[in-house]
Every structure is written in structure tokens, then in C-alpha cells.
Specification:
Layout: E1 3-7, H1 9-12, H2 15-21, E2 31-35, H3 40-53, H4 59-70, E3 78-80, H5 91-97, E4 104-107, E5 117-118, E6 134-138, H6 141-152, E7 157-161, H7 170-185, E8 192-199, H8 206-216, E9 226-232, E10 243-247, E11 251-254, E12 266-271, H9 274-283, H10 289-292, E13 298-302
Helix pairs in contact: 3-4, 6-7
Amino acid sequence: MIAEFGIEPEVLAEWRHFHALWGDFGIAQRRQIALYPKKWQRVTMDRARVLLREGRNTEMQVKRIEERLSGPGAKAKFRKTDCSDWKEREWLDNAREHQPAFDSIVAKAAPIGSKVLVAGEFLRDESPYARDPEISIPRTVRDIVGAAWPLVARAEVIVLVEPNFNPTEPRFLDPLVHLLEQLQSTGAHPKRLELHTCKFSKGVSRVNRGNYHAHISPHLPAGWTLKVCFWAERQPEHHLHARFILTEIGGLRYDNGLDFGESGSTTLVSGLGESKHQEFFSLYSAEGAAFRSESENEAVVVT
């Protein structure tokens, strides 16, 4: 869903390449830049200043590069990656041997015949660089969670929005359980985990509350909490129509739901742009103004 690109620091350290490529990365663009090595941002900024002294960047251009590499919108551009295989040698040699392999590599220069993209010489609307804004994935447990894994794997906040969620139905429960199992297997521990769904009656009954505890609690690791937010039906329709997986880094929209479907069924998934991500991430919050301002909204805490 979201490709991981290895970008040589030398490339984005030069303004002409930075100006051409920076806007192509983010969740909505379905591309992220691997932080490889771990100090990739610092290495790139240091190199940008060297190019300033060489006359290949201007003072203003370097300032813009630094602002964007470290600014609040940069989180969605980058992905932390395993750097344990990094060795003291040329960046491209490291990148080409990195495992798992990057979806694509962009470098200042590359050996003849290699699949490495050379900055300034490849067409951005052609494979392997080109990425459609949305993709169709199978409606399976594995694919629904897998599409969002680059976002949720290291997220501190995970918010699921599924208006029709029912913990007694495996088609809704199984993807949630798979997500919890995957997070636990990698040692992740999000600080905030929420599920937002519709409140289809005047109140959340004792039986309904019991169903959430009975079916979800056994799958929550010790010390974890899931807050289920029930939005009253009389809330504006757009509040709980689309389905999302949101994190503090970015978010994805699922057209047909976060539940698995019949064999062969698919759903479209698309990344949210920065402004829409901020809008929905703020809206879908148990402590947010929208949820707390409506007295008919209710919440259930599952531990």
C-alpha cells in the first residue's frame, strides 16, 4: 500500500532534486522515505550546507530544506527502518543490499543495468516510481491490516473508525484481533487505542457492553486499553460514514469497511492528505470536542 523508498542523502540535499521530489512523498502519495541510516535527516541537512559552500544551493534553499525535513508535516514522509545491516561504506552499496529490499531506490548515480533510479533522469509517472492514489485490496483479514501496517507498526495512537462494528461478528472482530496480535508480536504498545462506531439505539445496553468485554478483552495484552466510542445516530451523517485507520502519523480510508468480505471481494484504500488527516484525527477522539460536546454519545472502556 505505502512503498518504502531508499533516497540517497546526496539527492535531497540538492535543491533542484528536493524541489522536484519532496512533494511526491507522504501517506496520500503512497510513498515514504526510509530513515536509512538512522541519522538520514541530519546527514542530508549537513550535505545541503556543503552544497551551499560549493555554490550548488542558496542560503534560502538550504533553509527551506531544513524547515521541511524537520517540520511537523515531515512525519508522514518518513519511515523508520531496520538499520542493523548498515556498514561503513557507500550509501548506495548499503541500500542495494538492505533487507527487506526497498520498493525502489533513488540515487545520484547508479551502475549501468541496475534498477536504481537516477535523480533527474527518470520519469515520475512511470513504474517503479509511479503510484496510484488509491489501490484495490482483497477484503481479507491479512490485507486489511497489512495495508495500514507501515502506519500502525510504530504509532503511539491508533484510531479505528467502523460505523457498523459488531464484536459478536467474526468479520469485524477478526481484523481487530489480527491487528492486536501483530502489534504484540513486534513489541509495540500504542499509548491510545480507540474504536469509533455508531450508537444504533437510545443507549448502549448492558448486553452490548458485555459483548465488547467478552469478545475483545481476551485478545488485549495485559495493561492495554481499548476505548470504544459510540456516536449517537443524530450526529451529522458524515461523522460516521467513511471507514478509517488513523494514527498520529497519517491515515487511510477504506471504502467498504474494516471487515472482511466474501472470497474474491475487494475494497479501495486511499491515503489521506495532510489537511484531511488532521481534520479526521482531531474529530475521532474520545477526548475531542466533537465527541464530548454531545451528551448522547457514550464510551465503553475495554481492558
